[in-house]
């Protein structure tokens, strides 16, 4: 094997390794830019605090303290972070009011379900209604 063939073999090996590193660098750069773009979108999405109107969107009409479809009044929901700065009595009242609202909603759903099935109502539900 002549001496110049070794030079060609080493040039080919170095060229292939440089090509490999360039391809790896391009892939790494693309993944890095994709990660930065998704990170920017995530920061835009999560940097805004939810508004109190969006917080009460779980009710049927969309607002806190409004009526639901079946006429039950929903208790006003405290704003996020309100429990830290509010008085314990006020938070206890909000908790009890929402508890009673949930119980009434369950009772009305139970009455409606039994009425749809043609089942007799319980005396407790009749006396409360």
From TrEMBL:
Organism: Arthrobacter oryzae
Membrane keyword on record: yes
Transmembrane spans: 6-29
Protein name, entry field: Uncharacterized protein
Keyword terms: Membrane, Transmembrane, Transmembrane helix
Region (Disordered): 47-84, 104-129
């Amino acid at each position: 094997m002549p001496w110049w063939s070794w030079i060609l073999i080493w040039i080919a090996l170095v060229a292939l390794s440089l090509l490999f590193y360039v391809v790896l660098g391009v892939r790494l750069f693309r993944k890095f830019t994709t990660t930065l773009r998704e990170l920017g979108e995530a920061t835009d999405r999560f940097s805004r605090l939810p508004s109190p109107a969006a917080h009460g969107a779980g009710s049927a009409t969309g607002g806190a303290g409004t009526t639901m479809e079946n006429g039950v009044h929903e208790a006003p929901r405290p704003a996020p972070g309100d429990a830290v700065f509010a008085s314990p009595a006020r938070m206890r009242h909000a908790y009890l009011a929402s508890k009673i609202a949930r119980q009434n909603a369950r009772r009305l759903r139970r009455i409606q379900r039994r009425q749809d099935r043609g089942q007799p109502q319980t005396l407790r539900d009749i006396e409360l209604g």
